[in-house]
UniProtKB/TrEMBL annotation, chain A:
The chain crosses the membrane at residues 28-51, 58-82, 88-107, 186-208. Its main location: membrane. The keyword ATP-binding does not apply. The keyword Transmembrane helix applies. Residues 24-204 form the ABC transmembrane type-1 domain. It is found in: Cell inner membrane; Cell membrane. Pfam families: BPD_transp_1. It comes from the Bacteria. PROSITE patterns: ABC_TM1. One of its GO terms (molecular function) is transmembrane transporter activity. It comes from Aestuariivirga litoralis. This is Amino acid ABC transporter permease. It is a multi-pass membrane protein.
UniProtKB/TrEMBL annotation, chain B:
Residues 5-239 form the ABC transporter domain. It comes from the Bacteria. The keyword Zinc-finger does not apply. Signal peptide: none annotated. This is Amino acid ABC transporter ATP-binding protein. GO terms for molecular function: ABC-type amino acid transporter activity; ATP binding; ATP hydrolysis activity. It comes from Aestuariivirga litoralis. Belongs to the ABC transporter superfamily. Keywords: ATP-binding, Nucleotide-binding, Transport. InterPro entries: AAA+_ATPase (IPR003593), ABC_ATPase_HisP-typ (IPR030679), ABC_transporter-like_ATP-bd (IPR003439), ABC_transporter-like_CS (IPR017871), MetN_ABC_transporter-like (IPR050086), P-loop_NTPase (IPR027417).
Length: 224, 245
């Protein structure tokens, strides 16, 4: 048996493929869920950190520090294995979605804070001197300008969080990696793992390129 | 005459720095006032207090009988009565000229988009750049941007206009077009408070010159009187320096 037949056995690859695709579906669902909730959470935390009264600002700063300091896997294990002792039981998908959202929220908050702070103070002043309230000023004046600067680093955060979805296999969620390790055990062959790695690559490589492209095209300030 | 702005015993500190010291100033409706003085005299801070961009620590400011207080509901009402033009224009760079002008009328006044656009085109024509309506601020010259900023304020149909050194950031050849716009506005009877170093403009349109130094109003007089025989030594010195170059 040569190496090709061991690592890229076409027969096993064909039989494992549908199993892996189901895993891919879960991986993408988890990734998208985490990105949606993590980004919204990040925006909320960034606004609190910039504009809320001092105690809330400190809480938001503490949150982003802690969540960026803790390894993602530790957060996930705490949620899945420790919270049940407090009577809070999550399914493996929910636990993983919550963990990844909490972590992405912290990273997003930092990126968005920087984006909002880069909008010149005169923009806030012009908006409020026209009588626009805080919410309208944010919605119509500040955030649309901040978003250009936020998109490239946030895209990079999203790529990281999609990669981190593979940690969910640790809490027995049948994501792409878990399906691959199961298939590897079933067929007693590493081919499913190799195929899974290629699938990760096929999805993430274009996204990595896209982040680079976005950085090049969006990350410059408006001409004033 | 009814007082458009009534400032009484106003005090403001930036930390330990006492930047406005017991300011008293009344502005009648339709009156045009030029505030001048050396840099750091508190003149910009004073007009920024009028629409609540700066907080003050003592005294009071009333605009059309409404008390200016940062954390009150009247602040929005006051701000929609008081237009402000900034030194650096502060146009919204992500919106077109037209959208810059319609934003507040739509979201603060509740106008329909079509009404707001008609209103915006009316004032853009007034500042003589209706043909730039679809462009973005970054595509315009400084003078054009400042005229858009004036049109944007006028779209709220303010009763009072504040100008905070509107020509200081402009290249010399663009100053005239902005001043002409302001002169046109003055001739229509707009109540105006202008912080500016343009003494030619002051002479031409001001009803009263308010001279400030070190956070105090040192003297106020009609331009003819102020420019020919200033009462205070500080005003004389200031005018000497202005005229020397």
């Amino acid at each position: 048996m040569n190496a090709l037949e061991i690592f890229f056995n076409p027969d096993i690859a064909a039989r494992a493929f549908p199993i892996l695709l189901r895993g891919l579906g879960m991986t993408l669902l988890l990734g998208v869920t985490a990105i949606v909730f993590g980004t919204l959470l990040g925006l909320a935390i960034a606004l609190v950190r910039l504009f809320a009264p001092l105690p809330f600002r400190l809480l938001a700063a503490g949150y982003t520090d802690v969540m960026r300091a803790l390894p993602v896997l530790v957060v996930l294990i705490l949620i899945y294995y420790a919270l049940p002792f407090a009577g809070i039981v999550f399914s493996s998908f929910t636990a993983a979605a919550v963990a990844l959202s909490l972590v992405l929220g912290a990273y997003s908050a930092e990126v968005m804070r920087a984006g909002i702070q880069s909008v010149p103070h005169g923009q806030f002043e012009a908006a409020s001197s026209l009588g626009l309230g805080f919410v309208r000023s944010m919605q119509k004046v500040v955030l649309p300008q901040a978003i250009r600067l936020v998109i490239p680093p946030q895209a990079s955060n999203c790529v990281s969080i999609i990669k981190d979805t593979s940690l969910a296999s640790v809490v027995a969620m049948s994501d792409l990696l878990k399906q691959a390790t199961d298939a590897q055990a079933l067929f007693a062959n590493p081919t499913p793992l190799m195929v899974a790695a290629l699938i990760y690559l096929a999805i993430l490589w274009p996204l990595v390129r896209l982040t680079g492209w976005l950085e090049h095209h969006l990350q410059r300030a408006y001409q004033r | 005459m009814e007082a458009a702005v009534d400032i009484r015993n106003l005090d403001k500190w930036f930390g330990k720095l006492h930047v406005l010291k017991g300011i008293n100033l009344g502005v009648a409706s339709g009156e045009r006032i030029v505030v001048c003085g050396p840099s750091g005299s508190g003149k910009s801070t004073l007009i920024r207090c009028i629409n609540g961009l700066e907080e003050y620590q003592a005294g009071s400011i009333d605009v059309d009988g409404m008390r200016v207080q940062k954390k009150s509901k009247t602040i929005t009402a006051i701000r929609s009565e008081v237009g402000m033009v900034f030194q650096h224009f502060n146009l919204f760079p992500h919106l077109t000229v037209l959208e810059n002008c319609t934003l507040a009328p739509v979201y603060v006044r509740g106008l329909k988009p079509k009404e707001a656009e008609d209103l915006a085109m009316h004032f853009l024509a007034k500042v003589k750049i209706p043909e730039q309506a679809r462009k973005y601020p970054g595509q315009l010259s400084g003078g054009q941007q400042q005229r858009v900023a004036i049109a944007r304020s006028l779209c709220m149909r303010p009763r009072i206009m504040l100008f905070d050194e509107p020509t200081s950031a402009l290249d010399p050849e663009m100053i005239k077009e902005v001043l002409d716009t302001m002169i046109a506005l003055a001739t229509e009877g707009m109540t105006m408070l202008c912080v500016t170093h343009e003494m030619g403009f002051a002479r031409k349109v001001a009803d009263r010159i308010v001279f400030m130094d070190h956070g105090e109003i040192v003297e106020q007089a009609p331009p003819a009187e102020f420019f020919t025989s200033p009462a205070s030594a500080r005003a004389r010195q200031f005018l000497d320096q202005l005229l020397r170059h």
